[in-house]
Design brief:
The chain is α/β, with parallel strands linked by helices. It contains 5 helices and 5 strands; from the N terminus they run E-H-E-H-E-H-E-H-E-H. Helix 3 links the parallel strand 3 and strand 4.
């Protein structure tokens, strides 16, 4: 069964880039432009992975992840956090939310697809090595 990936990004160009890369590699991709839309989609579809921007209007990534992790139906969804805020303090704050990995923007499309495959392929109980992509 083809994994379903939800891309949550308010910047249209960034979202389009990620969606196109993921579709190129054969993934089924859903899109949301804020956290509130993302929560609706996670209740309507069996999402395998979320690519989550952290800074968005309406409902940001931090708030969205908190809701996802507190709901038994969505707590186990794998999450890759993406943001242009790459200071160590911000990285630590992002990783503390319980995401599987952090990726700074702009994404490297060559390694992004490999990271997505690695996250989807690993067992549900195995921690991601390193906790972030550099």
């Amino acid at each position: 069964m083809t994994p379903i990936i939800l891309v949550v990004e308010d910047n249209d160009m960034n979202r389009l880039l990620m969606v196109e890369v993921l579709r190129h590699y054969g993934y089924e991709v859903l899109e949301a432009s804020n956290g509130a839309q993302a929560l609706l989609l996670t209740r309507q579809h069996p999402i395998d992975l979320i690519i989550m921007d952290m800074q968005m209007p309406i409902m940001n990534g931090y708030e969205t992840i908190k809701v996802l992790r507190s709901d038994a139906r969505t707590a186990g969804i794998k999450i890759i956090a993406v943001t242009s805020f790459a200071l160590d303090e911000e990285k630590n704050r992002i990783l503390a939310t319980g995401v599987d990995v952090f990726v700074p923007k702009p994404i490297d499309t060559r390694t992004f697809s490999k990271l997505v495959k690695q996250i989807l392929d690993r067992s549900n109980n195995a921690p991601f090595e390193g906790g972030r992509e550099q």
